[in-house]
């Protein structure tokens, strides 16, 4: 599409997460989280840690200035649970809340709408030691944490997202062990973690709504249309199973209050009477993280007998993910058709590339510019077709600690030199700034 014009009230901005950018892991009373433990065990591929990361904890005014200069009017950030509650429960760390006070006030002063995410993977280690997302004991502590943070910030922060990508947490953290806390518990471990996140989310949503009637409440899910590698019956069935695990457990949980029928038997051992009613709750906003479709095939030896198929794609990111912008349109059209057209914010969309500065010291990231342009065109097409998309937040503002890949993968529209912490806006920053300021592509 060319000459795409977005609605006047459309939100433009970027997303980050606390663990990936803040650093200062030992500062001002913050407690340990599962990713601290995972890194200490030597499980980060490049041997790095998030001890400094982007040092956003100390450099947040500079980062807000970058957003303001870009013309952004929204910013999704996450609260670090162990910064607020060092053991996950009990005594509140006032200095942790003070940091988010400063950040929120700085955003508002810059004319940027703060959108807070309560859980972006930094689970306090003491809660993991008690079972983490494998048990129901975590449900109450999460709802209590949500209430504590909202009590401090809800007078200024009106947009609240409960979880970020519960499917990624469950599958990679508890199923196959590639993310913290690093458990390899297979199918049941994945489904338990998904279900208990859904239950905790439902309780937190109810707690915040009861205390603050004026908030816009929601959550963030990584949604990826699942396609079969071939027309073979076993591949089609495998893709449907993976769609149920990856997309439908979190999506149908909050929007429909139900367990996907394909997984009902596997989940029967830990889904109790009343759980389906507890996981469903009317939300005001749905954050969508989109990176690509998933092309799946039948293959034994993997959870649910599903494995990656051939995406038949010509463009790939540095994460070896296919570039499929039309999949974002398909996803938004499906939400309109099948889920009563909820208010959607693209909460993450972006790409990792190597991003080596040129002789002029600038980062000419043409591949990322093309990625953003093509995905924004898909969003514009969806808006034109009546999809209820309210904003687009790119991933990410800054290069940062990319979880198990450490500092080796760069997603930012601003380059971070990890030795000096100098921020250098890339060509993608300038491109996206033009779109944000003009409201057109």
TrEMBL record:
It comes from the Bacteria. InterPro entries: GH, GH_1_N_CS, Glyco_hydro_1, Glyco_hydro_1_beta-glucosidase. GO terms for biological process: cellulose catabolic process. Pfam families: Glyco_hydro_1 (PF00232). Keywords: Carbohydrate metabolism, Cellulose degradation, Glycosidase, Hydrolase, Polysaccharide degradation. The active site is at 165 (proton donor), 348 (nucleophile). Gene3D superfamilies: Glycosidases (3.20.20.80). GO terms for cellular component: cytosol. It catalyses: Hydrolysis of terminal, non-reducing beta-D-glucosyl residues with release of beta-D-glucose. Its EC number is 3.2.1.21. Substrate binds at residues 20, 120, 164, 291, 395, 402-403. The keyword Chaperone does not apply. PANTHER family: GLYCOSYL HYDROLASE (PTHR10353), LP05116P (PTHR10353:SF36). This is Beta-glucosidase. It comes from Telmatospirillum siberiense.
């Amino acid at each position: 599409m060319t000459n795409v014009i977005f609605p006047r009230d459309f939100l433009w901005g970027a997303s980050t997460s606390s663990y990936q950018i803040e650093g200062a892991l030992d500062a001002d009373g913050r407690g340990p989280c599962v990713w601290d433990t995972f890194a200490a065990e030597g499980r980060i591929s490049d041997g790095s840690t998030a001890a400094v990361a982007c040092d956003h904890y100390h450099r947040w005014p500079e980062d807000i200035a970058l957003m303001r200069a870009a013309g952004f009017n929204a910013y999704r950030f996450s609260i670090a649970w162990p910064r607020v509650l060092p053991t996950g429960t009990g005594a509140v760390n006032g200095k942790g809340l003070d940091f988010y006070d400063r950040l929120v006030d700085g955003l508002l002063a810059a004319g940027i709408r703060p959108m807070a995410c309560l859980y972006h993977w930094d689970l306090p280690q003491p809660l993991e030691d008690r079972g983490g997302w494998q048990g129901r004991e975590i449900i109450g502590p999460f709802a209590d944490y949500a209430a504590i943070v909202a009590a401090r910030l809800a007078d200024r922060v009106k947009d609240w997202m409960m979880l970020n990508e519960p499917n990624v947490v469950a599958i990679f953290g508890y199923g196959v062990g590639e993310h913290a806390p690093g458990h390899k518990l297979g199918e049941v471990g994945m489904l338990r973690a998904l279900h208990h996140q859904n239950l905790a989310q439902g309780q937190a949503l109810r707690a915040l709504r009861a205390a603050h009637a004026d908030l816009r409440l929601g959550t963030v899910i990584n949604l990826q249309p699942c396609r079969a590698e071939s027309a073979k019956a076993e591949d089609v069935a495998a893709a449907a199973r993976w769609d149920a695990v990856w997309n439908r457990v979190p999506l149908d949980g909050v929007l429909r209050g139900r367990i996907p029928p394909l997984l009902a038997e596997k989940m029967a051992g830990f889904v109790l009477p009343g759980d389906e009613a507890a996981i469903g709750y009317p939300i005001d906003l749905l954050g969508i993280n989109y990176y690509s479709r998933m092309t799946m095939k039948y293959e034994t030896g993997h959870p649910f007998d599903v494995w990656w198929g051939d995406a038949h794609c010509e463009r790939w990111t540095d994460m070896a993910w296919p570039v499929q912008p039309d999949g974002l349109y398909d996803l938004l059209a499906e939400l309109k058709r099948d889920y009563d057209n909820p208010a959607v914010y693209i909460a993450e969309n972006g790409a990792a590339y190597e991003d080596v500065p040129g002789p002029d010291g600038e980062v000419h990231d043409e591949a990322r510019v093309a990625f953003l342009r093509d995905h924004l065109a898909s969003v514009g097409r969806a808006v034109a077709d009546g999809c209820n998309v309210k904003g687009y937040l790119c991933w990410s503002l800054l290069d940062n600690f990319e979880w198990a890949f450490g500092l080796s993968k760069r997603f930012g529209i601003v380059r971070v030199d990890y030795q000096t912490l100098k921020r250098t806006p890339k060509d993608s920053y300038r491109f996206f700034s033009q779109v944000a300021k003009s409201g057109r592509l």
